[in-house]
Amino acid sequence: MYQRLRHAIVIVTVVTLLLGLPAQSGQGAERPRTRIAARSIELIEEPTLRLEPLKLPGSTLEPIDWSALDGWAVDDHAAAFATFLASCRPLLRTMPPKGEKRPMYFALRHVCRDALAVGQPADEQARIFFENNFRPLRITKLGERAGFLTGYYEPIVDGSRFPTGIFKVPIFRRPRDLVAPLNRTGPGFPNRGQSLRRTSSGQLVPYYDRGEILDGALDGRHLEICWIKDPTDALAIQIEGSARVRLEDGTILRINYDSHNGYPFIPLSRILIEHHLIPREEMSLERIREWIRANPESAEEIRRQNRSFMFFRIAGLSDDREAVGAQGISLTPGHSVAVDNSLHVYGTPFFIQAGLPLTSEKRSVGFHRLMIAQDTGSAIVGPARADIYWGAGDQAGQFAGHIHHPGNFAMFVPRELDPVEAGAQMPLPPKRPLAAPAKPANIEIAQRWSLRECRTCNTAEPRLDGRAKPLNASRTSLQQPKLLESKTAEIRTSAPAPRLVTVVAGPARQIARNSVNQAKAGGSRRE
Predict the structure, then answer these.
(1) Overall number of domains in the chain
(2) What is the pTM of this model?
(3) Residue range of the domain that includes 135
(4) CA neighbours within 13 Å on the CB side: how many for 406?
């Protein structure tokens, strides 16, 4: 009994030393977990790096003041901060992607640490946070004056896990033989560049286009995620990049864009307009649906002209949250945008100003809102190109389908990348040494040619080489240089015989005058 009691005391003592004092309040018990979480984030922090200046190929960046952002003061800063904070969590809790060297990525991580400390600020506090930590830069594509905006949403369609007489349009996952473009520059599957496939001989060739896939190039590989019943729904899913598929048993299957076959995306709306099948002023997603249903045979040929084809992945089996973007987090309707991920880092804030048809198809209203880059798409290419996420369902689809408008983009850059502050801290170049004043050419000419001797004078006339010329030598034997001309001064000798005109300016004027006086005093006039 005594031995057991002693062993129990020893065990309690060891446990007490390892865990600390057991008698703590509920709030105190949470502190060790908070510190552990903080340490887990610090463990994946990279060493302090000296960031290179911000460079975006093919872009124009212009620093602007906050007052230049129309509508900034009345925006919903708290909602924008919450969306930004959602992007900060994966930025801080995951390792930097392999090969990630973009200065914006690491600068955003630094700002995100401060954002996590702020928590859930009020609207005014959120505005101050953005203004203290970022500098707005007007961004456009090189040679253009504005960016371009579209809208997207998450369609909700009916589908089946198996093909049937009704559900016969397949949605494909990424094929195993799909090779990403070789010129990839950022994380994830790039939006541009030719995707490839490896043949049985090991050769890389362009991947199948839409026509080849529709003709059965992928049949028999078991790549079908599900089947839907309407080709127009498949078109909408390809355009929007995500969908909720309502299966027969009521389960909601969430699918997201994963990759593409590498061909440039050609909007179906452009093809229909160019073929004069739908007037430009009537163009909308619903109008496209109507035309496809009314012209099923022609629609097949029209679809083949867009050689681009998208592949998808399963994102979940629930209906309790918004679509998941390429950053891996749920999107926020009206505050999340899809951007070109080869240029921009997920989590970058953009303030967008445009006139958008939010109340009716034909009437535009002012749109001024801070949005966060959290998604991408194969058709989203360029520095000032964004696709605004509006949510799920038919109403969101109506908003998204009417937006094809220009807009002004202001990218928020962390202060450590601020080109204005970087320029202010850049050392000035050393002053150029003062050069000795050059001797004016007109003075030298005056000194050489002002002293002249007439034929009756006894004083020798100097040559150009400094030696004396023989007396009474003909002046025509010595070639005289062309004298400078000036409208400000003209000096002539009073004697009519020596028709020497010396035209000078500035200090040379006095030299010439003295030379004439010396000639008068030294000899008689020419006969």
Answers:
(1) 2
(2) 0.66
(3) 77-173+221-265+306-425
(4) 5
